[in-house]
Every structure is written in C-alpha cells, then in structure tokens.
Design a protein that fits this description.
This protein is α/β, with parallel strands linked by helices. 36% of the residues lie in helices and 14% in strands. It contains 13 helices and 12 strands. Strands 8-7-6-9-10-11-12 form a 7-stranded parallel beta sheet, sandwiched between helices. The chain has a 5-stranded parallel beta sheet with strand order 2-1-3-4-5. Helix 1 runs parallel beside helix 13. The radius of gyration is 22 Å and the shape is globular. Bound molecules: (2R)-2,3-dihydroxypropanoic acid.
C-alpha cells in the first residue's frame, strides 16, 4: 500500500515517472484537463505535478483539500499558481530552474536570428518555388553581429542570452531591478534604465517573470521609444507585453519585427498577430528539447518525492516562507 497519492497532469518524458510510481500511487492524465476537470479531479491528492498551462487557483487548492502538501510545477515560471494562497495553506510550491536555462536561451537566440535574417520567410519562399533569382537586393535582413542587444531581466536565462551575444561581438545592455556589478565587470555588459535600454538597443530580449509589476511592462509608450529598426524577442511570458500595442507597432513599422514564443493567451488564436509578416512565432518551445524536458521531469519528480518525505533542502522551493509552517 502506498502512503501517498499524486496527480501528474500530463505524461512527462524519461523514466522518472517509474520512480514516482514506486513511491506513490500515481494518476497520469493523457490529455490536458480543462479547469473544471482539474477542479473535480484534485480532491484527496498529496501532491500535484502541474504544467504551466494548468491554472492552480485558490479554488483548486481548496478543492484539493487538507491533504495537499506540494505542487511541483514542470516549468521554471510559476505564474500559473496562486503561490500566496498555497503558502497560507502550508503547501510547498516547487519549480524547475537551472536545467532549462541554456535551452531557453538558445530558443531566444534562434528567434532573434530567424527574425533578423528572415529565415521563415526564406524557407517558405524556397519551398513554394517563388525564388526566381539571386539578387543584390533580394530578401535583405539585418546584421546581428556588432549590434546592441538589450536584455530586460538579467536572471539565469537573461545572462545565458547575454553570453551568446558576446560571441557575436555585440554590445550588451541590461535592465534589472537590482544592479549586478560583478556580472557587469566579469562580462563587460552595461546597466541602463529601461527607457535608455529601449532607446539604444537594436534587439531587445525579455527575461522577466510574469508578476503584477512586469505585466504589460512593454506597452505602447515603451514600443515608441524603440528604434524603427528594433526587433523584440519574447521567450518570457506573453503578458509582459501589451499584445495589442505590439501588433499596432508592427503594423505601423514603429519597430521592424518581433520573435515570439509566448502569448497573451496560449495557444494563441490572435488573427491580427498571426497575419503579420514581420513576426516569427513559435508555440512556447523555450525548454522544448529532448534532453531538457527529461531533466525537467527528473527535477519535478525529485521535488515531489523530497517534498513528501520532508527533505525540504532538496526541493527547488518557490515559497521558502512556507517552511516555517511545516513541521518534520
Ligand atoms: C518555463 O519553464 O517557465 C518555460 O516557459 C518553459 O518553456
């Protein structure tokens, strides 16, 4: 007889699930549950292994009931979870930082290159046999090397993107809530206020978590500050950008283009956005490599098992203040 019950809201890669099954009674869902389905399903579980697309509200936490001890999110971001309410209810919230840093930075870089050098347009043109002849003025993009990259949010992923930029001989600027003097001198990157960064950068890449402070931080005013040749890259969270303002800026050529992996609503059905020629759009693929998704699975499962066995120092905890409420 297992002493715990865990709900995993989607099949995750790797062999970690077998480990979890040895330890707990595990229910794994094959399809993404609707909010209502999740609400009906959660009562009685001790642990939830959730995806960033599962909204874990106070209502879901209440429905789960007093036996719920840990929510292990299969993502580094945790804006899908009411962390404050979880903490009030003595529930650990865990996430998967570090293991996805480089893959997400690679994807941001791929979007930046694809947008600047018009890779997707070029691919479509070649496939549809619309490429008539080589020409000196045909499908010109923008140089990336020796340009200025502005990083908004110099956390783990922001720094990994900055390192990639240095290999392209770029000048790197950053804006962050706190100055990171050591990183500035180690990597030769420069701090700017957000407004100055927006004015000076050729490429702007967003790497802030979604919080009440960052929601809509790139709106009409900020887009107007950018160069008309600027390219905006967003692999963070869609709602950091005012999507309507971005569409307006792209339509009016206020900026040159955007590379987006994240959207206001996911999956996006924003027709206005989908028909724009000067955007490259990917379906939230930041961490989507075979290797990284397996590492995320292992980490999310370790978080769950360690949380349920009171080994809290081995859990990547989002809400450490909850530990004061937990007794061994
Ligand atoms: C995360 O883990 O928060 C990323 O958005 C996944 O791609």
């Amino acid at each position: 007889m297992h002493s715990c019950r865990v709900l995993v809201t989607r099949k995750i890669p790797g062999s970690g699930l077998f480990r979890l099954q040895e330890f707990c009674e595990v229910t794994i869902l094959n399809e993404p549950p609707s909010y209502k389905e999740l609400l009906n399903m959660v009562p009685g579980y001790n642990g939830l292994l959730t995806m960033l697309s599962d909204k874990i509200t106070s209502e879901i936490i209440d429905a789960a009931g007093p036996d719920l001890r840990i929510i292990s999110n299969y993502a580094v971001g945790f804006d899908n979870i009411d962390v404050e309410y979880a903490t009030e209810n003595s529930i650990i919230v865990a996430h998967t930082p570090d293991v996805l840093t480089d893959s997400t930075a690679d994807l941001a870089w791929a979007l930046l290159m694809a947008t600047a050098r018009r890779l997707i347009e070029g691919d479509q043109l070649t496939r549809t046999e619309k490429w008539k002849a080589w020409s000196p003025t045909f499908m010109l993009g923008l140089d990336v090397h020796h340009k200025t990259l502005g990083i908004v949010g110099l956390g783990r992923i922001g720094l990994a993107v900055a390192k990639r930029a240095l290999a392209f001989d770029m000048k790197v600027l950053y804006f962050s809530r706190t100055r990171k003097y050591e990183i500035e001198s180690k990597f030769g990157i420069e701090y700017r206020t957000l407004d100055d960064l927006l004015r000076e950068s050729d490429f702007i890449s967003l790497h802030v978590p979604l919080t009440p402070e960052t929601e809509g931080m790139i709106g009409a005013k900020q887009l107007q500050m950018m160069k008309s040749t600027a390219i905006l890259i967003n692999t963070a969270r869609g709602r950091v950008v005012d999507e309507d303002a971005l569409i307006h800026a792209l339509k009016e050529s206020q900026i040159r283009g955007a590379g987006l992996d994240v959207y206001r609503e996911e999956p996006t059905h924003n027709r206005e956005l989908l028909k724009l020629p000067n955007v490259v759009l990917t379906p939230h693929l930041g961490s989507a490599t075979i290797e990284t998704r397996i590492k995320m699975a292992d980490l999310a499962i370790n978080n769950l098992i360690n949380g349920l066995t009171h080994q809290y120092d081995r859990v990547k905890i989002v809400n450490p203040s909850v530990l004061k409420k937990l007794k061994k």
